[in-house]
Amino acid sequence: MKLNERHLMQLAAVIDAGGVSEGAALLGMTQSAVSRSLSMLEARVGEALFVSGRRPLQPTALGNQLAIHGRAILTASRRATDAVQGHLKGTSGVVRVGGVPFFMDALVSQMIAEFHREEPEVTVHQSYGNLPELVSALDAHLIDLGIVPIGSTHPGSHYDFTELLPGRNVVACRVGHPLLRRRVPKANDLAAYPWIAPLPGSPLMSDLQMILMSIGVSDLNIRYAGGSLMSVVNFLAESDALAVLPFSVLFALRKENRVTLVPYAIPQPDRSLGILRRVDTQRVPAADRFALHLITVFENLRHVIKRHESAVVWGG
After folding, report:
1. Which residues of the chain are modeled with pLDDT < 50?
2. Does pTM top 0.90 for this prediction?
3. 104: which of 47, 99, 183, 306 fits an S-S bond (Cβ 3.0–4.6 Å)?
């Protein structure tokens, strides 16, 4: 015997509401339609579902038992409706975001936490990669958006890029570094110290080479390479080595008071950090909501960083 799930839902609503008209109103149906459904259900099971002549309605033992299953179906239906509405509004679902490691660790991970406080029903899956890997992940539909720095190497018309922050690099060192004793450091001062190499494939590597060329150093004096952001910060904080870092990343680390910038003006990259997405991929509403969150937070951050940058007396 197969019972109609809608009939079970209506039975549960009538019992819980205390009457046919009340149950019908709860379901947004007419009283006559619900009455027909109950009659069809009783005919199907071959037994009364309500005690005859009792007012208000009193379910039989079988009526109560079937109502338990009706409530489960009704609850599942409402949850499914909520899930659809949440998906369409972007307040539930999964966002898959990939990004360059230093920016993700220093800036975006905190923004993900802030987003989760606003949208607790959205799950964010984060991955790492540089521009080539993230473009491949977008093409394979493995991520919804990438957080990448892009300049002249824009991947093409199949991709939409929304700028978050203009590119700005600085030389970083530990707090208390001997270089900071000089009011205005010179190029030969920077050349006297070893350097930390960025992660393989990072655009910071070409930036480092450009910086060293500008200060007259032909060979890289590398003493540490390939570390994560935390590893680089730990090495910087415990040595006299120097590293090239995005200004926004160093700004995000300022409260730890372990590393700081060397006020020496260096050549700047012609690129910006932003959100990369494929234009021909169906948009995920939760990803759109997350992207809007990033744009808003970075817009506020841009002004704060600019004021901090303007307060520095740059040498070089």
Report:
1. none
2. no
3. 99
